[in-house]
Amino acid sequence: QKEVEQDPGPLSVPEGAIVSLNCTYSNSAFQYFMWYRQYSRKGPELLMYTYSSGNKEDGRFTAQVDKSSKYISLFIRDSQPSDSATYLCAMTRGGSYIPTFGRGTSLIVHP
Amino acid sequence: KAGVTQTPRYLIKTRGQQVTLSCSPISGHRSVSWYQQTPGQGLQFLFEYFSETQRNKGNFPGRFSGRQFSNSRSEMNVSTLELGDSALYLCASSLDASGSVNEQFFGPGTRLTVL
Q1: Residue of A49, A52, A97 best to disrupt the B interface, most CBs of B under 10 A
Q2: In 3-state terms, what secondary structure has residue B83?
Q3: Alpha carbons A47 and A35: distance in angstroms, whole number
Q4: Å between B53 CA and nearest CA of chain A
Q5: Cβ neighbours of residue A58 closer than 8 Å, sequence gap 6 or more
Q6: What is the Cα–Cα distance from A96 to B101, expressed in whole angstroms?
Q7: Which of A67, A93, A98, B102 could be disulfide-bonded to A29 (CB atoms 3.0-4.6 Å)?
């Protein structure tokens, strides 16, 4: 079993939908949680990061961490076709900054 | 400000050959990390260099090696290529490795195909 599990999808939604992307993890030492977006033929770009449990909002994006359940989520409101990409979760242990990545979820937002 | 650049963007090699990939980090960034990305395994950490020293290493065989130069540019080398080495190789640079959250900026990657 991988340390970080993420459903590869694809997840297909209509424009304007609320999207929920999720990851589970097994190592309770993870403290920093990140979401990356990767467009086709590009490298990943950091969208958001959170420390420990709680919510963080940035525009249409909300990151949520539930450490008791070892579960993190990224919500995208009012999804747009330009949000179509692969979303990767990543997390790091305290004292280490090398992230462990999920496999990524492919999101398709159709007009 | 220029982003992370990687060369070449695409590469085709045959089994048994060796390959060298290059990465130029963002100006001022001293940490360079290398990752292998495949559909089956996702993004896997290879190694990280900071000030010309390898500081962290992932779980890859010794065929994978790297180095960093005084100008922070980095190269990675794969010797005796195997079919399973076909992947997107990503380089990421960051300003300071000591931060609690390391914001890494990724390059576009080098797509390596081994025939």
Answers
A1: A97
A2: helix
A3: 6
A4: 16
A5: A47, A48
A6: 9
A7: A93
DSSP secondary structure letter of residue B84: G
B34-52 pLDDT, tens per residue?
A: 999 998 888 999 999 998 9
**Facing residue for A102 by CB, picked from B42, B103, B106:** B42
Q: Which tens digits make up the pLDDT trace of B73-107? A: 999 999 999 999 999 999 999 886 554 456 788 99
Q: Average pLDDT for residues B58-62, to the nearest whole number?
A: 94
For residue A43, give the nearest of B45, B56, B107 by CB distance: B107
Give the torsion sign (CA, A29, A31, A35, A38).
Answer: negative
From A52's Cα to the closest Cα of chain B, the distance in A is 12
Contact assessment for residue A10 and residue A106, using Cβ atoms and an 8 Å cutoff: yes
* Residue whose tokens read 């929920």: A20
Q: What angle do CA B70, B7, A38 make, to 5 degrees?
A: 105
Are A6 and A104 in contact by the 8 Å Cβ rule? The answer is: yes
Residue with tokens 């060298």: B20
pLDDT above 70: residue B1: no
Q: How confident is the model at residue A79 (pLDDT cuts 50, 70, 90)?
A: very high
Residue of B nearest to A97 (CA): B102
Residue-level pLDDT at B7 = 97
Taking the C-alpha atoms of residue A52 and residue A50, their distance in angstroms, rounded to an integer, is 6
